[in-house]
Amino acid sequence: MLDRKCVACRQIKKQKEMLRIAKLNDEFVLDLKYKLGGRGAYICKDKNCLQLTVKKHLLNRAFKMNVSSLIYDKLGEYEQDC
Ligand SMILES: [Zn+2]
Questions:
Q1: Does the pLDDT at position 55 exceed 90?
Q2: How many whole angstroms from 29 Cα to the centroid of ligand 1?
Q3: What is the pLDDT of residues 8-52, one digit of tens each?
Q4: What is the rounded distance in angstroms from the CA atom of residue 69 to the CA atom of residue 42?
Q5: Where would I find the H helices in 1-82?
Q6: CA 38–ligand 1 middle distance (angstroms)
Q7: How far does residue 19's CA lie from ligand 1's centre (Å)?
Q8: Local confidence band at 1 (pLDDT 50, 70, 90 cut-offs)
Q9: Which of 15, 34, 52, 67 could make an SS bond with 8 (beta carbons 3.0 to 4.6 A apart)?
Q10: Helix, strand, or coil (residue 69)
């Protein structure tokens, strides 16, 4: 089960402490308001977890597929604002 478990550190946290990535059709988006449906994965809003996710492409494992590098770029940008 992917829900609410950080793909990087594997801890379960409160939803508002986490960033949700949603898969909608074949696109991956940051679900900042947790309102999008689809399959989702969570990452802590934490520099270390975001960096690890980008570096090791952990979303590929979470979604069991090759995730577009665009979403990793977005995570990188998000991490700058953390
Ligand atoms: Zn984490």
A1: yes
A2: 18
A3: 999 999 999 999 999 998 899 999 999 999 999 999 999 999 999
A4: 17
A5: 47-56, 58-63, 69-80
A6: 21
A7: 10
A8: very low
A9: 52
A10: helix
- 15-80 is classed in which CATH architecture? 2-Layer Sandwich (3.30)
Of 38, 80, 11, 9, residue with least CA distance to 20: 38
Give yes or no for residue 64 having a pLDDT over 60.
yes
CA–centroid distance, 52 to ligand 1, in Å, is: 9
User: Model-level pTM?
Assistant: 0.90
Place of tokens 């960096």: 51
Question: How many Å lie between the centroid of ligand 1 and the Cα of residue 8?
Answer: 5
- Please choose, from the candidates 57, 26, 14, the residue with its C-alpha nearest in 3D space to the C-alpha of residue 75: 57
Which pLDDT score, from 0 to 100, does residue 3 have? 62
Q: Which of 48, 49, 18, 50 is nearest to 34 (CA)?
A: 18
